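To whoever is on call:

I kicked off a structure prediction for a single chain this morning and the downstream step that reads the tokens threw a length-mismatch warning. I double-checked the sequence; it's 344 residues and nothing unusual in it as far as I can see. Pasting both halves so you can look.
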Amino acid sequence: MSLEKADNLFADDFLEEALELYSQILGSSPQDCEVLSKRAAVLLKLQRFPEALEDASLAVELDPFSAPAIFRKAMALFRLERLDEAREQFELARRAGYPNVDSWIAQCGRSTEGKEEKRAEDVSDSCEASLSKDAVSSTLASKMKFAWVQKPESVSITFYAKNLSKEHVKIEFESSSVSVSLSLPDKSVYSSRIELFSTVIPGDCSFDVTKFKVIVNLKKAITGDWDDLMSKPRGDVVPRANVKGRFDVASYPSSSTKPKDWDKLERDVAEEEATEKPEGDAALQKLFQDIYSKADEDTRRAMIKSFQTSGGTVLSTNWDEVSKKDYEKEISAPKGMEPRKWSE
């Protein structure tokens, strides 16, 4: 049973098949937070909200700092019209580092009388958004860059997009084209259909997702070199001549008379990717997860109770102290702030 296969089925909207495979994986590993969270996302798209809430809640119990699990729990509560609870969980998801939840929090604050039906249809974190024309120029999608390189038998296209997982990437292969859809962290969507210079074998094509890029691998139907990536020129691609006889290493066009060691450049980039450290909320989130994963049972219980019952304002590892305290009644806000109930 392959988690990657289940992720691919989910990304391609084969929801029932993905649900079955996630369930099989959980049969042998029932306390896998990641798989529970992903199955919750599938159940949300299938509109099976009570089951989605059950999976997401268990995932949050197993890892109270998993932002996707918290968000999916919030979404299930939202769909079940439990708006006060949903808003609380959306707030926790935001504190845990989940992006762009303010609009959901705002929707939870609306009165149930005459509430609008205008809600996002995709309840998974595929991150599809509707942007005005004025905002398009500042989105990650509008800034997307990609490059390509070839060998006699294959072509590789690299899209430079950070922090994506396979559920955010949809690639469709045809004999003379490839369609790419990337749901980016700012909720913009990059979509492109590339009409290829020559034909490929769709069944032998694939793609890989790393922390920093998405790599599309195309298998040529006819061995040989292409004069360009596309059959027709496009504004976002610079035509480039192929360097014949040098397919053993990546070859790139350049006006410079000084040759570049592209292998070394690739190694430098790989090293940079391996050593890059998260910053800001991501760094704090990773710290909490590291502490939780290495903690004993009492420390985990303390972290879960203090974080959940305080509404995300307190995180303690001292179970002797936490076990005696009722944070829901004794909420203490950070300095310069005051605690209020959702209804206030």
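Update from on-call: the warning came from a stale cache, not from the record. Cleared it. Sanity check on the structure: The beta strands are 146-151, 154-159, 169-174, 177-183, 189-195, 206-209, 214-219.
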